[in-house]
Amino acid sequence: MTHVVVTGATGNLGVAVIKALEQEPDVKAVTGLARRRPDWHPAKTEFAEIDLAADEPDFTGADVVVHLAWQFQPTRHPEQTWAANVLGSIRVFEAAARAGAALIYSSSVGTYAPGPVDDRVDESWPTHGWPGAAYPREKAYLERYLDAFEPQHPDLRVVRLRPAFVFQRPAAPEQRRIFAGALVPGNLVRPELLPFVPDVPGLRVQVVHADDVADAVRRAVLRPVRGAFNLAAEPPLDGRGLASTLGKPLVRVPRQVVRLALAGAWHARAVPVDPGLFDAVARLPLMDTGRARDQLGWSPAVDAWDTAGELLAGLHGKGGYPTPPLHDD
Fold it and tell me: What Gene3D superfamilies does the record tag this protein with (predicted)?
């Protein structure tokens, strides 16, 4: 029977992972770590408060540590996200090694260097990220840290999960606050208000449902696997498919026009997402998920369009969950 510690246990992915572990009979107990204790009481889970930007975790007695904690904001103060994400993650990695607990780390598609337009990349593709935005820069730095960390701890099982963009309906209010800003009300984020769907040349993204990533985490907890695993649902999403889904006209918009508009909104403090993140997303490669299917026995239960549909429904309908990050407005 297994004791699992989950960092970032109250966020988008954390809630899904806690639910998956609650349903797994081979998991005896779960400790959920978060900056704020939630008003949520799963049967096998005990929550504890920790600020990984400042506090040293102690994983004594844990069999597996699942590290999900990540701070997206404030993007205007990257020194703060660096302290939470990079230095906090290093604290988690080293504490797992001291405890002798297997480490499952949620990396990201954002860690990959720009890739080919019409081909998929596997887990061997360079993980240099995109230097113009904090998120891929921090993810890439941690990949380099683990490259040095793993040979120093050869007996420690380390798994790096690299999911595509992770969506689920309960997390939609949080994602709206992170990417659109707290001043944008949910009732304004409605597909029917869109006059058209922009067709940005070369822009296509992969997504995956939080429950499917949680299933991959559960499998990685229980199986003696090591290494990196790409996680994504099919098909990749683009403007043409979104226009068809929403029944809206498709209008070609040059990438530079989108970037200039985003940069203007960013400098006017109208949105919290800087244009560097758009640059990173526009250059992401498409991931091949064959290794996860072969070694984890994993395959997504929710396709990409249904996953995106949950996000849209949660943005202007009922979303949220009784945890501080996922609270509805």
Answer: NAD(P)-binding Rossmann-like Domain
